[in-house]
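ligand=pyridoxine-5'-phosphate
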Amino acid sequence: MSINFISEINPQQFKLNESLLRARLNRLLRLLEQNGRTVSVVFLDDKEMARYNQTYRHKEGPTNVLSFPADVADELGDILISVDTAWREAVEKGIPLHQHLTWLIIHGLLHLLGYDHELSEAEAERMQDKEAALYQAVQHIHSGGRIMPQLAINVDHIATIREARGGAEPDPVLAAGICELAGARGIVVHLREDRRHIQDRDVRVLRQTVKTRLNLEMAAVKEIVEIALDVRPDLITLVPEKRKELTTEGGLDILANEKKIRKTVGKMTEAGIPVSIFIDPDEEQIKAAMDVGATYVELHTGRYADAKEHEEQEREFRLIEQAAEAAYAAGLRINAGHGLNYLNVGRVAGLSVIEELSIGHAVIARAAFVGLDQAVREMQNCIDLAG
Ligand code: PXP
């Protein structure tokens, strides 16, 4: 695959972040299964664009984007973008220039692939839906193609301490606030069917108080699905649940539970709640996650974290690394977690495609000695050092 960026604009006027746009285009080509083909993106000013518009479309004045499909099999074609027009449109919409440029690249790419919004209303709708889905899949990619993993703290264990006495203290809601103040970018709770730690009230109050992102771990069962649809967390993560386990013991087997998982994903998607599925680092599960319509997978890092011998740890890490790449190439977004601590988190945080690390036990255990604020900051530091 080759991507050519050609800039014919005045660099004093607009500073284009080429590495950001290249990383996003790279990903888009993979998602569209066009990764063997060459595409050129040419950035022009309005004057040049008006010339192309007149010559090829017999229209006066500039436009934002024009696509010219190639007639050679391994080439996709050229996308011309007027940065002057893109800038005016971005200002009108109140969005950053690079966000709008990403939209225009997607629009141009879809034209190269034969989409045409001018054909009919139905085709315009099909194209718009495709654009929105592609934008959603690439908007988190930052400069240089590197995704910085964000720390999400699981506060279940605070509730476990509370339940030991059946009272009101310590409150996981308060803990979540401290975690956010210390820099955590997300709060995770698992509302188990047996309610052994987190209670319904916790989830409902957290929905009111969490300022970052609330990720609700849950089993794909009717009662909890109804609560999730009512509470509307920012993300739900489907996990397996066994009554006798001490903690989640492994990834969800999507293939063995396909029907109820597909149904739950469908309900959440209809309600606009994105779904992540906690899976073992396994290609079959990744394919199945795609197939049932998940937006994210959370890769189970427990076996890597629990490995006693160096060789076993290496083997488990490779599986996570390969699964992360495969999920990324398939167009899934990727979180990871389970068993991560201050010593083993670095390697996982160093994988360039992981968006969120979900960590509970290690941080809450350390908090007993150094305080929750410091325990979160230290974990954040371990992640930053890996970045
Ligand atoms: N991710 C999932 C899906 C989990 O079930 C858990 C445990 O509740 C975690 C992450 C966090 O694991 P740990 O408490 O070992 O950090």
